[in-house]
């Protein structure tokens, strides 16, 4: 990362790491501030003055410690993408990083966040003064003033990436991707990352997730298929507009409704679209996990007809691929364009399926692959996710309409049960 303090570098680092981990690429953030805090936990702005030799020395030592841990991580833990989260604000510092990585056989991609929009900077300063461990226990106004002085100290020596550095691979994000300058991108992974970064925005918004209403297949415990809603599922579809309203919609917010191409999600969103006039899009990529030869069977029938497959799925549910069908890993790959589009979008309500919802949820909440396929996602429940600078907030709203439970615990083929109304 490259950029002055309060330019959203840590936010970008955290998001990029979450995205990479979700697509299965081992990634880690090395935050130089964390290393510096070991010796200097609560520095004031003077510590960052370029004329302060002691400060300069301590900061260089922190950067060296972070880079050496980073190189060790690449070597010993087989890491793929390390994100060095620091200001790296001078050409000399960047040359050192570039050379050090090159000598270790590691490619460098500099991501500079440039921002001259006062509103965004103020927003970031506010975020920092309330969350940074540097300022714990300090009066927020004093912290904000000190932080502004710290930025001024960095400005004295800050050199933006320019013509002299055109041999480097870099991307410059200007005012949160309003303008993006890309230089010397040479491989697929970097171009994917750049595309991801290009889609990010920081406008406040929410994403609502819901499964379709209870379907005829859900009632009989059959998986897959393309059945209609049950009468209770239809009742949920009718209740959805009020449930969405109850969850809190920002004034004048424009919401887009996304469904899969299967009947049960389209029927669930039908009344919502009609009552609100919100734009509606159908995505093939949101269709349920394809259960191949097991489509339209119950879990009990699968356990009976394909006992080895049933056991293998329990053993490693994320990677198990149904014969002629998909695994959770496959679903994540086909959902990548959905995530890109979601990052670009503002308010969206997605009406989809159990497995697909788990994958999207795992991206936002950073859920590990061995847990996400087992997550409980009850029917007739609306989830509201609100991305914040340091994580995603979640709220759940349950419609008071009973439905079966389609959740199956590991190691059982137990028949589905009624899901009691009002249960959280
Ligand atoms: O991965 P598991 O836990 O089997 O959950 C996925 C299953 O959920 C179901 C319901 O049992 O999805 P859906 O929400 O579309 O009804 C099946 O169609 C699908 O195979």
From TrEMBL:
<protein>
    <recommendedName>
        <fullName>fructose-2,6-bisphosphate 2-phosphatase</fullName>
        <ecNumber>3.1.3.46</ecNumber>
    </recommendedName>
</protein>
<feature type="domain" description="6-phosphofructo-2-kinase">
    <location>
        <begin position="1"/>
        <end position="204"/>
    </location>
</feature>
<dbReference type="GO" id="GO:0005829">
    <property type="term" value="C:cytosol"/>
</dbReference>
<dbReference type="GO" id="GO:0005524">
    <property type="term" value="F:ATP binding"/>
</dbReference>
<dbReference type="InterPro" id="IPR027417">
    <property type="entry name" value="P-loop_NTPase"/>
</dbReference>
<keyword id="KW-0067">ATP-binding</keyword>
<feature type="binding site">
    <location>
        <position position="264"/>
    </location>
    <ligand>
        <name>substrate</name>
    </ligand>
</feature>
<dbReference type="GO" id="GO:0004331">
    <property type="term" value="F:fructose-2,6-bisphosphate 2-phosphatase activity"/>
</dbReference>
<dbReference type="InterPro" id="IPR001345">
    <property type="entry name" value="PG/BPGM_mutase_AS"/>
</dbReference>
<dbReference type="InterPro" id="IPR029033">
    <property type="entry name" value="His_PPase_superfam"/>
</dbReference>
<dbReference type="Pfam" id="PF01591">
    <property type="entry name" value="6PF2K"/>
</dbReference>
<feature type="active site" description="Proton donor/acceptor">
    <location>
        <position position="288"/>
    </location>
</feature>
<keyword id="KW-0547">Nucleotide-binding</keyword>
<dbReference type="GO" id="GO:0003873">
    <property type="term" value="F:6-phosphofructo-2-kinase activity"/>
</dbReference>
<dbReference type="GO" id="GO:0006003">
    <property type="term" value="P:fructose 2,6-bisphosphate metabolic process"/>
</dbReference>
<dbReference type="InterPro" id="IPR013079">
    <property type="entry name" value="6Phosfructo_kin"/>
</dbReference>
<feature type="binding site">
    <location>
        <begin position="211"/>
        <end position="218"/>
    </location>
    <ligand>
        <name>substrate</name>
    </ligand>
</feature>
<feature type="active site" description="Tele-phosphohistidine intermediate">
    <location>
        <position position="212"/>
    </location>
</feature>
<dbReference type="GO" id="GO:0006000">
    <property type="term" value="P:fructose metabolic process"/>
</dbReference>
<keyword id="KW-0378">Hydrolase</keyword>
<dbReference type="InterPro" id="IPR013078">
    <property type="entry name" value="His_Pase_superF_clade-1"/>
</dbReference>
<comment type="similarity">
    <text>In the C-terminal section; belongs to the phosphoglycerate mutase family.</text>
</comment>
<dbReference type="Pfam" id="PF00300">
    <property type="entry name" value="His_Phos_1"/>
</dbReference>
<dbReference type="InterPro" id="IPR003094">
    <property type="entry name" value="6Pfruct_kin"/>
</dbReference>
């Amino acid at each position: 990362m490259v950029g002055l303090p309060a330019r959203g570098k840590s936010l970008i680092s955290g998001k990029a790491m979450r995205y990479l981990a979700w697509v299965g690429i081992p990634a880690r953030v090395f935050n130089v501030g964390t290393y510096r805090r070991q010796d200097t936990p609560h520095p004031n702005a003077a510590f960052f003055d370029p004329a302060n030799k002691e400060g300069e020395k301590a900061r260089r030592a922190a950067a060296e410690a972070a880079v050496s841990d980073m190189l060790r991580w690449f070597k010993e833990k087989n890491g793929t993408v390390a994100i060095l989260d620091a200001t790296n604000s001078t050409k000399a510092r960047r040359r050192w990083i570039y050379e050090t990585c090159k000598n270790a056989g590691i490619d460098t991609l500099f991501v500079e966040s440039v921002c001259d929009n006062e509103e965004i900077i103020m927003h970031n300063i506010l975020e920092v003064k309330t969350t940074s461990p540097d300022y714990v226990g300090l009066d927020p106004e004093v912290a904000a003033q000190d932080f502004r002085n710290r930025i001024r100290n960095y400005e004295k020596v800050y050199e933006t990436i320019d013509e002299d550095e055109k041999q480097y691979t870099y991307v410059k994000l200007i005012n949160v991707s309003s303008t993006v300058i890309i230089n010397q991108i040479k491989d697929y992974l970097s171009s994917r990352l750049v595309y991801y970064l290009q889609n990010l925005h920081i406008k406040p918004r929410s994403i609502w997730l819901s499964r379709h209403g209870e379907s005829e297949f859900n009632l009989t415990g059959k998986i897959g298929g393309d059945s209609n809603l049950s009468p209770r599922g239809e009742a949920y579809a009718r209740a959805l507009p009020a449930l969405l309203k109850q969850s809190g919609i920002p004034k004048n917010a424009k919401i887009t409704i996304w469904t899969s191409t299967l009947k049960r999600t389209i029927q669930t969103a039908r009344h919502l679209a009609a009552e609100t006039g919100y734009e509606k899009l159908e995505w093939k990529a949101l269709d349920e996990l394809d259960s191949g030869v097991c489509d339209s069977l119950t879990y009990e029938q699968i356990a009976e007809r394909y006992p080895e497959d049933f056991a293998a799925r329990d053993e490693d549910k994320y990677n198990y691929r149904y014969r002629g069908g998909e695994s959770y890993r496959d679903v994540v790959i086909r959902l990548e364009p959905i995530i890109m589009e979601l990052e670009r979008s503002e308010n969206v309500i997605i009406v989809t399926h159990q497995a697909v919802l788990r994958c999207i949820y795992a991206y936002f909440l950073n859920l590990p692959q061995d847990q996400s396929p087992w997550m409980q996602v009850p029917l007739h429940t609306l989830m509201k996710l609100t991305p914040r600078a340091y994580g995603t907030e979640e709220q759940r709203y349950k419609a008071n309409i009973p439905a079966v439970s389609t959740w199956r615990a590991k190691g059982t083929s137990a028949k589905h049960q009624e899901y009691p109304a009002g249960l959280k």
